[in-house]
Amino acid sequence: MAKSGDIVVYRRDVCRVKDLIKKYRNDEDYYVLLPLNDETLTVYVSVENAAKLFRPVISREEAEELISKIPSIEPVEVGDRMIENVYRDLIHSNEHEDLVRVIKTAYLRSEEKLQKGLRRSEKDKTYFRMAEKILYSELSVCLEKTYNETEEYVVSQVRLLNAAK
Question: Nearest-CA neighbor of 9 among 136, 115, 123?
């Protein structure tokens, strides 16, 4: 059971548990969540549904392990017609490795198009940004860094790991 001050991931947003309201609606207890990226927003989640809708943020050790695995996570090999469905499924899986897969796939597809003198696809740009936001928002909490510092850290660690190969 979450308590006030805990940081959790609700769907795809990192939130702080502000409070637990007893018998808020229909005689049910509700958590009050504040998304860290938009503290003007307040989310109410019934305690009964909380187990399905949110989870704790990963630990620093789990984050470091994920970062160390990034070079070995394979991008998706799929054609343009199916890519949006694949991206959507990967993002909705709520698995960190799937977010990395989206980022790598969109990046590599964009680079390939740029090398051919073509424009990057809007789908690749959109899902790249979405996956980065979800992943780096959570990693920034467990690594105790800002979003930008987290992005720089992950990129530098991946470069070091790739150079060591």
Answer: 136
